[in-house]
Amino acid sequence: MKSLPLNILIFVCLAIVAPLHAAPLFQDAGLAIGQGITGCWTGPFLRVAQQSFAQDQTTLHMTWDEEALHGTFQCQEACLDPLLNRLHEFKKDNASVWNNDYVALLFQRNDVFYDVIVDANGRIESASAVGTDFWRGRVLRQDTGITAEIEVGNGVWTANIRIPWDAIGGKAELRELFRFQAARRNPSLQETSVLFPCLNGFHTYAYFGSLALVEEVPELHPALPAFLPGKNVISCDNATVSGWIEVPGKPRQLFDTNEFELKHAGHFQFCWQINGKETPYWISPIYELTASAIPLQFDLSTSATWKNAVRRNDQVVVPGTTLQDGKNIIEVAEGFPGTLKAGAFEFVPPASKFQLYSQHTLLWPNWQAQEWCVTRGGLQMLLFAPRGFPDTTVSDYTIKLNLPKGFTLECASGYYNTYPNIRFTPDGTITIDKAIPFRKSIPSHEFLAAFIRVPEEFEDDVTELSFASSSPCQHILEVPQSMKVRLLPKLDGVAPKELLVYIWGGWLHALTNKAYIDTVLKDFAAAGINLVVNLPNQVIPYSCSFCFEKWGWPISPYLQEHPDAVLIKKDGTPDSTHVCPKTIRTPEFAAWLKSQVPGWLEKSGNPTVVEWDYEFRIENGPFSCYCPKCIDHTEDSVRHQDMAFFIKLLRDALQEVNPNIRFAIYSGYQSERSKQVYGIDWSLLKDTIDIAECGYGRPLADIQATRDAIGDMPLVLGALVLPYTYDDRKYPSQYTTAWLLRRAADASYGILLFNYPSFDGQSMHAIAEASKIMSKYEPFFRYGKRLQETIPQWAQEDTQVIEYQGRKILILMNSGIKPRTYHTATIPPGECLVLEL
Prior knowledge:
837 residues; 14-stranded mixed beta sheet; 58 strands
């Protein structure tokens, strides 16, 4: 074929990115919006001053008509998930919209700058300024006609905004082009994000994109891929996609379909667009991204015979060919004389045809994203998901840990006897002798737990650990995945005598290797932990979770004798796990409950605490009955009273068997919202339970309302490490001593730690440090008066003065990322200073 002239080639390349159409309205980052109700959902939003995508994402949908501009923001918001018990972190009612969750649209038309801020309560602040320096001339505007409707749901909130054209410069015209920006503020994450990346505040005009008014845009729901090596697909129905990838030092790679090949490891730039009839519907900003890719290397210099000796996925390959993430089928010629090398992994081919995986084994949480911290002499758990390999079932699923010198694999176990035949060696080889089919994801209770002992003496503070899965029988290998390991000081916590340092152990209670549980808890004790949830053991006192389910403390057997006592749900159907609250108030039921308690306690191992995680919406909780006897008594207050009556009944029965047992309730803080969402009114439990437990976050008004409601009852406050859902691949947050002491100072009886599978040595070290301070100053935390004294140059939330019997202590908590000083003392990030005044 005859070569094309260079100028023709350049023209063809440009056409790939921007198909020919009449006078495109914009050629840089921007959005075209149509008349009517259809349009393109745009995103992702990026953090201000960063190129990373926001954690809680936002998408924006915009349209226009002759009267107004219309915008819909859909805002993901993790704290709106009721199960997280963080609803108080969703800020919507502060006096200033700027202190709330809010979204913003900003426009520049004819040298006039407009912003429209809408918070999650539907309140609007609108302003304008002349020129591009918005803040110098910002003038608030009234009676603009701008309206907003807000919807708040589970895990998301939506803002529908209508902006009359008169509010932003006058009537619009078809094919008009002006500049705009979209922004979102998420106070629960301290995260501000924007549609078009900016290096400082989102009012900076230089970072705006284009907004084009066109006649029609189809309904588009595009989604970007995960940007993994190999084939990537942009999801976008109803339109064609094109774009480019640029790697430093290499020519720009163009693509003109929704598929593109990523052949690069490390940093790259990416830009894409959705092609429209008249003008692009969307041109993205330039994203700065990174990807990992592993080259396959081999030596062909020995003989020309082996020139075409290696194939990947049925294609002859040359040295340096990039492996795809996931499955690669490798073939080598019979008698191939050398070794293969994938990254740093050098190996002899196990067969002439075999499977080589890259980035396949799933470790949870995603410690590889940053580092995995361990404590010297301590024990750390790694969780693997033995999900097998696609298109096959293996009976010798093997995980090989390449442990640093002196590190030892002490135990490998599943939960609930899922993997009854596990073989492991101290140097890190784990083999499951069970048929393992491939599953894309598996539930957390089917994970495999590997417990690694760290030597007390180790020369370096930083080392590396790698892991890979394989099936020798099926000739399946994986390129080892590595992660940075940081060693921290040995745990030297001190358990308080009365205050609780209370931990949820995840699935440890279901560990197949029951004999190893006590070994794990010895490390808990070394951190100063003095109570564990649902873990009968010989090391640390433990609690038992109460529930009506068959695996807990069921009252359903009562219904077998009294079927007419069943609770009726709101939809009119019976609930076989709950009893009508009117029946619960009868002497007959009280006698039955009393007869059951000794057996329940014995089955639970005779715990020192019984705890009920009470989080039920008031309209469908365990005391929300709609039977004929209850239909005239469905008020919230009645249901709260029924709950309090049952709890007192149960607590009295427990303490008749064991006077020393304590009954605890965990739920949301005292508030009108908690009464609805969690079904809890703490004021009715003041003299009914022994311990109140709340979490998470720090809504001061709600904490005080809880204290007022429970009086002198001991209060435990929770500290939650994220992620705790097993499909979340974010690097986990970790405890700091400052964070834990903040919770202990707000509480009166200790801290509740959630939960062990998300912890590494950083969290365990922080727990140990906090436990020592709590133990040393225990009467202050338990009985002391919290004073609101101001410490110069320190924020109120980072200080606490506590007075007890005429003495005062000052706790200074460095919640920042840089060292701080107080007089001559230096306080490292995340640490504390406690002084007696």
